[in-house]
Amino acid sequence: MPVDVGLEKDGMIYQRAQYAKGGIGRRYWDYRDETILKHVPKGTGTLVEVGCGEGLLTEKAMKRFPDKDVSAIEPNPENVEICKSFGINVTEGSVYKLPFKDDSIDCVLFIEVVEHLDDPELALKELSRIVKPGGRLIMLFPNDGAVKLARIILLKFKEAYYNAGHVRQWTPRAARDIFKRNGLTVKNTKNMPFGIWPISVHHLIVGEK
Fold first, then answer.
1. Nearest C-alpha neighbor of 198 from the set 169, 158, 176, 175
2. pTM for this prediction
């Protein structure tokens, strides 16, 4: 539920406010982020989250990897200011034109962004461009149907019917295909938390260049 560039300000749901509520939502959020960060290679020197939202995951990465160069790119000016207030090294920018040289980043995190994009092919091409040979791209996207059902069960009706600005529902197969088309070898995948995509909340895919 990031502050999406194309959404109305009125009624906006903020990530950090949701996280602060605690409960099962926060426990799952921590599980999701821990699973993501476990796939960051030990030899990583540069780690960038592209489309970091309010910076919760980037902040966790900074604390987990204090010896690494951790930064973020975010298109929304409000999110950029929120991130900066938490000491995150963030730059306002677009996934379609990243401010990095070719083959320059060890690991890129691309978490709950692809479903917002009008041109995911161009985005994956750009992400692949900046990843070093042998480096990793870690992408995660939601299963919108399962997410909505889970929120209804938990009586979170505002969140269940919230317009998060998603353009497309991605599937594990579509994710594998777009990775392969853009020079990324799929090294790992995971449906979270149940292992079966139709009833899982997220899909994680890890690619190496």
1. 169
2. 0.93
